[in-house]
Amino acid sequence: MKNLRIVLIGSGNVATHLAKAFTQSGCVIEQIYSRTTQAAKSLAKQYQCSFTTNLIDIYTHADLYVYAIKDDALKDIISSIKPTNGLHIHTAGSLSLTIFEGFQQNYGVWYPFQTFSKKRAVDFTNIPILYEGNTTDNELVLAALAKKISRHSLYCSSEQRKAVHLSGVFACNFTNHLYAIAAEILEESGLSFNILLPLISETAAKVKELSPCEAQTGPAVRYDNQIIEKHEEALANKPNEQEMYRLISKNIFIRSTH
Amino acid sequence: MKNLRIVLIGSGNVATHLAKAFTQSGCVIEQIYSRTTQAAKSLAKQYQCSFTTNLIDIYTHADLYVYAIKDDALKDIISSIKPTNGLHIHTAGSLSLTIFEGFQQNYGVWYPFQTFSKKRAVDFTNIPILYEGNTTDNELVLAALAKKISRHSLYCSSEQRKAVHLSGVFACNFTNHLYAIAAEILEESGLSFNILLPLISETAAKVKELSPCEAQTGPAVRYDNQIIEKHEEALANKPNEQEMYRLISKNIFIRSTH
């Protein structure tokens, strides 16, 4: 595969991480678009490329247009960019391939299934890349690009990708929220969140070897009423968390008996 | 500290892991009690010690009696064991120190804050040990034992320990249940749970550097109604999980705006 010339649309978290990974794989970022001059300029400086805050000025000769912007802005941006011969891809888990329909001829999705924070470096070789193209040729380009960057790439239809995204909400976003509740409970007792870190690591590591069902432990699996009641009492001043406690405990028990 | 002679009461997950850690630290397991002959025998063989299935036959000369049994069995077992001069400790997160009151003179709690599975080796040096004794002398013995085995030990009152245990239910048991739901969603779409593992690892790793609040991402923080509604629709055939989705999303949003 020849080294692709890329226009990057976006300058946030995901765009920043992608710019690095694409460049390392030999691609060349030629232009960066962002709504805000400051963000576009600072990222463009890093990759010695040009930048624009005007959709009209986006280059038309690039091989690949990577849209790494907020989901709710994607539709507007897509409809405002001139048709080109290049391959246009978005990186959103929950949006369909067909969002490009009627605006571009060559398009696809290239979804890195990971949580990105500005402050943390990520190792792309370990991130599953889920790709989909509107033609076989486009899909081959996206597959090749994924293979250059990651050891885990796979074709994934828009329908499947929605399920992947939803599974990530449970396993990442919701899990992190449980960490936040746990942190609060500890801090209210004068204890540091740090004492939870070994347990959090082990819980995550366990499911590399055991299925989550096999790995399930705690009072809810055996429906230990005495402990469950005490915990519900302890959460009396946190009605939302108490309801969450009830609901999840019930669900753990139901699943363990089926 | 002299090497303690231990009677181990229990032969399950926690007992098995503790026997190994105590022995490695120089203690000697002298006897194992279990309700079932098979379990007691097999663990006793490993440590070349005696075993019994009869509470009456428990040695009275040991330095330390370690109760590693199910929470709901603990009270009965404690009330059935003869008083001795040794130090009697339980290893349960949710039970008070005072459960030994009236039955023994020297007692305490020694709670390794981790999730144990028979199939997985654990590194005790990295497990926080939360100890508490009924006297200063007993507490010193438990602190010394904790220090021999782990790099992270701290005094923790029975009241605090209840909070610790509850925080663990959220961060470990409930988190694992979210993994189970995510696995099911993927499998129903013909995808492997394995594609979630890098995301699960990163979510757990992130909170070593960022607080869970800083680390929070996903549609609920920004209350992206379009995505949230689609997800709720996708969960239409799983009413419990749908309710969980609503409740957790709402709670993430409420906390992010406070």
Structure write-up:
2 copies of one chain form a homodimer. In chain A, helix 1 links the parallel strand 1 and strand 2. In chain A, strands 3-2-1-4-5-6-7-8 form an 8-stranded mixed sheet, covered by helices on one side. The mean pLDDT of chain A is 95. Chain A is elongated and about 70 Å long. Chain A has 2 domains: 152 residues, 3-Layer(aba) Sandwich (Rossmann fold); 95 residues, ProC-like, C-terminal domain (N-(1-d-carboxylethyl)-l-norvaline Dehydrogenase, domain 2), CATH 1.10.1040. In chain A, helix 8 runs antiparallel to helix 9. Chain A contains 9 helices and 8 strands. By secondary structure, chain A is α/β, with parallel strands linked by helices.
Quick structural summary:
2 copies of one chain form a homodimer. Chain A has 258 residues and is of the alpha/beta class. In chain A, 46% of the residues lie in helices and 14% in strands.
Q: What is the CATH topology of the largest domain in chain A?
A: Rossmann fold
Corresponding CATH architecture of the largest domain in chain A: 3-Layer(aba) Sandwich
The ordered string of helix (H) and strand (E) elements of chain A is EHEHEEHEEEHEHHHHH
Number of domains of chain A: 2
- What is the overall pLDDT average of chain A? 95
- Trace the largest sheet of chain A across and list its strands: 3-2-1-4-5-6-7-8
Greatest interface: A-B, 94 and 93 residues
What is the name of the CATH class of the largest domain in chain A? Alpha Beta
Instruction: Characterize the overall form of chain A.
Output: elongated
Total number of beta strands of chain A: 8
* Contiguous runs where pLDDT drops below 50 for at least 5 residues of chain A: none
Query: Based on helices, strands and strand pairing, what is the structural class of chain A?
Result: alpha/beta
